[in-house]
Amino acid sequence: MLSPNMLNAEIIAIGSEMLTPFRVDTNSLWLTERLNAMGIDVKLKTIVGDDEARLEEAIRDALRRSEIIISTGGLGPTEDDITRKIFARALKRQLVLNDAILEKIRRRFARRGMQMPEINARQALVINGAKVLENNNGTAPGMLVQEGKCTVVMLPGPPREMMPMFDVSVGPALKQRAADLLIVRRKLSIFGLTESRTDELAAPIYTKYRNPSTTILFKDGQIELHLTARARSENEAGKLLDELAGQLDEALGEYIFSRRDETLEQVVGELFRLNGYSLATAESCTGGLLAGRITDVPGSSDYFLEGVVTYSNEAKMRILGVPKQMIEEYGAVSEQVATAMATGVRQLADSTFGIGVTGIAGPEGGSADKPVGLVYIALADDTQATARRYLFPGDRQFIRMLSVNAALDMLRRRIK
Amino acid sequence: MLSPNMLNAEIIAIGSEMLTPFRVDTNSLWLTERLNAMGIDVKLKTIVGDDEARLEEAIRDALRRSEIIISTGGLGPTEDDITRKIFARALKRQLVLNDAILEKIRRRFARRGMQMPEINARQALVINGAKVLENNNGTAPGMLVQEGKCTVVMLPGPPREMMPMFDVSVGPALKQRAADLLIVRRKLSIFGLTESRTDELAAPIYTKYRNPSTTILFKDGQIELHLTARARSENEAGKLLDELAGQLDEALGEYIFSRRDETLEQVVGELFRLNGYSLATAESCTGGLLAGRITDVPGSSDYFLEGVVTYSNEAKMRILGVPKQMIEEYGAVSEQVATAMATGVRQLADSTFGIGVTGIAGPEGGSADKPVGLVYIALADDTQATARRYLFPGDRQFIRMLSVNAALDMLRRRIK
C-alpha cells in the first residue's frame, strides 16, 4: 500500500479522558485526512493520559522512527496538561516564558471583561527554538519544532482550536516537506438508499478499480462513498476519480445529493438561493431540529423566513389553522395534518414553500396502528401540497434525525 | 494518580483501516469499561496498521511497562494479519501449528458447505505456551500468554467475536490477577464557568485527594468533572466520592447542573415537570435549536407547548407582536426585542414561561457596535421579564450552541 515516496507521520493524542470508556480520539481522523491529502501517511496513533513516563517514551519512539509527529491536547492551563513539559524533556530543550504570548492571553481575557487566572501563565511557556502557532480560538498556542529530520507539531485538543491552527500554520509548513505522490479523495453523499442496496448498485463498478479505492460509510442515516486516488498530481488524481465517479453517478443518480462534501442543508440552501425561493417550516416530532439544520447554513436568512414548533394540538390549530375536526378524525400524526401544517405555515409566512413534519419519535406514544417511527412529511406551494409517509427505525434521536434528513431531501428533490 | 494496588493495562488496536480518516477504534472503549470494573487501569492505547516494525516496538514497550496487554485485530487469514507473527517475535517464542484448531476451522467451513481456503490454515498457528481462546463467532481463535509478570491477550477485531471471547475467557483469567479493587466514577456537569475558573475553584479541593482522582473535561461549552474512586466495594467507593463531591459542591454550587450525568435539557425538563410549569420559545439566531434540544427529552410534550423561529423581522412583528418601532429604534438584536419576544411567545402560548433569543451568530452581520457573538436572552413569566446580554466566542455553530446552553441554564436557575 505504501509508496516509498510518501512521508510517515504519527499522531499522539494526549488526555486521560480518552483512556476512559467515554471518549474516543476523533481529532486524528480529521488530521489524517489533511495529511493524506498532502501525501503523508499516518503509520501509528498513540493515546496517552497525564502519564509523564509513558508520554515521554511515546515521543522518543516517534522521534526515532517517524518524519512527522503531531500531538493534540494537553496544552491547557492545568497540572494535567503535560504536553509542553514532556515534549521539552524528550527533545532535551528548555521551556522559556514568552512575554508576547502572555500578553496576548491576558488581553484575550480582558476583552471578555475578565482577569487572567494565574495558572494560564503556563500557556505562555514555549519550547526553546519552537515556532509558535497562533491560536485565534483559545488561549493555548501551538508549537512547531524541527528536530533533525523530524517535524514535531503540538496542537491543542479542542477541534475548533486545532483545525484552524493546522490549516493556517501547519499545513503550509508540511507541504514544503511532503513528497511527490499525493492522495486525493472524493466523497459522494447519498440519501434514500440502504447500505446494502447502495453496495449492490455500486460494488460491480468500484471493485473493478484498485486505484481509486472505495470505502462505503454509513453515517447519521446517510451513506458516503469515499473514493481515494493516489497520483503524482492533482490533475492525474482528478482524472482517475472522474472516471470512477462518472460510472457511480450513472448507477446511483438522483440518490447522490453532493459530490463536494456538502450537507443536505447546504445543497437545499443553494437551490433556494439560486431560484429565489423562500421557505417556512412547521414541526411537531422534530421539535425545531429541521429549522435548526436549515439555519446552520450562513446566510440562510435570505430564504428561511420563519418556523413554528407546534408541539401541542392546540398550537397546531391556533397558529397553523389545522381544523380541530381533522385532528380528531385522523389524529395529529396523519397525512392530513402534515399537509395542513405545510399549507398553514406557507400561508402564514407567505413563502414559496411550506413544509410540515408530524410523527411519533417515541419512546412512548406508539400504537399498533401508529407505531413509533411513523412520520408524515408534507410539502406545499401556492397551488398544491403533497405528503409522504415514512416508517423510520431506531430510537427517538435517530427517528428525529432521519425525519429531518427526509424533509431536507424532499425539498432538494422538489426544487431540483 | 496511580494506586499501587491497581494493575496497569494497555490496549493495542491492529488494523490499517483505523489509520484512515474514516474509522475509529471503538473496541477499546468497551474493553476499558470491562477492565476498569475489575480494577484495572488503561494507561495507553496504540493504533497500528500492518507495519511489522512499529507493531513489534509497541509490543516490546508494552511488555516492559505494563502488567496486562490486550490487542484487538490482525488475526485474520491474510498477509496483512500480522498479529500472531509479531507477538511471537516480540515474545521470542515460536509459532506452532495446532492440529485441533485447524480441524475446527475446517469443520466450521464444512458446516457452511465450503472447503477451507488454504490461507485460513494460518489461523491455526499458536504461540508456544499460549492458552487458546475459543472463538464461537468466527474462525480466528484468540490467545493468552503469561510472560513473566505480564499477561498478554490477543483478541480478534470484530466486536461480535471479541466481546464474548473477552467475557468468557479473558475476564475470569484477569479477575484472578486483578487486585480486589474496583473503579467507580461520578460526573459533575457544570455550566457558566470557564475551564480555568473552574480549575481555580476546584483544584484546591481535588488536588488534596489522590483517590478519588479528578479529570476536568471541556465539552460543547460545558465542563465535566470526572471523579474516579478506587475501592474494595461500591459502598466504600461511594463514600470516597461523596466526600470529594460534597466539597466540590460547596465551591461550585449553583454552577453544577447535574451530579448524575444528565443533560441541561433533562434537568430543565425535570424542573418543569416537578413544578407543573409550561414553556414556549421564541428564537432568532438559534433557529430552532433551543426547541430541538428541549424536545430531545422524551415526554417533553408535557411541558413544552410551542416554539417559533422568527428569523425575519416581519415574523417577529406579526407572530410575536414585537413593535416595528422597537426594532427600528434598538435593532432586532437588543435587550428590548429579546424581552418582547419572550413576552410575546408566552402570551401566544399561554405558558408559565416564555424565553426569547436574538443574536448575531455570524459569520456575516456583525458591526463594531454589535459584533458577531452578541446574544440577548430574555425570560418572561406573567408578571415580569428579565434579559441578559452575552458575548460568545467562536464560530457560527459554537455561538448557536452556547446560546442554547445559556438559555437552558437561565431556565434552570430561574426555576431552581
Give a written overview of the molecule:
Two copies of one chain form a homodimer. By secondary structure, chain A is of the alpha/beta class. Chain A folds into three domains: 7-177, 3-Layer(aba) Sandwich (Molybdenum Cofactor Biosythetic Enzyme, Chain A); 182-258, Alpha-Beta Plaits, CATH 3.30.70.2860; 264-415, Alpha-Beta Complex (Maf protein). Chain A is 39% helix and 25% strand. Chain A is built from 13 helices and 17 strands. In chain A, strand 10 (213-219) and strand 11 form a beta hairpin. The longest helix of chain A is centred in the last third of the chain and has 20 residues, at 396-415. Chain A is globular, with a radius of gyration of 26 Å. The first copy, chain A, starts with 6 loop residues before the first strand and ends with a helix. At the A-B interface, helix 1, strand 2, helix 2, helix 9 and strand 14 of A face helix 1, strand 2, helix 2, helix 6 and strand 10 of B. Strand 14 (304-310) of chain A pairs antiparallel with strand 14 (304-310) of chain B, so a sheet runs across the interface.
Shape of chain A: globular
CATH arch. level architecture of the largest domain in chain A: 3-Layer(aba) Sandwich
| Number of separate domains of chain A | 3
The percent range for helix content of chain A is 25-40%
Largest interface: A-B, 88 and 85 residues
**How much strand content do the residues of chain A show?**
25-35%
Structural class of chain A: alpha/beta
User: Could you list the spans of chain A in which at least 5 consecutive residues all have pLDDT below 50?
Assistant: none
Query: How is the largest sheet of chain A built, in terms of strand order?
Result: 2-1-3-8-7-6
* Separation of the first and last Cα atoms of chain A: 41 Å
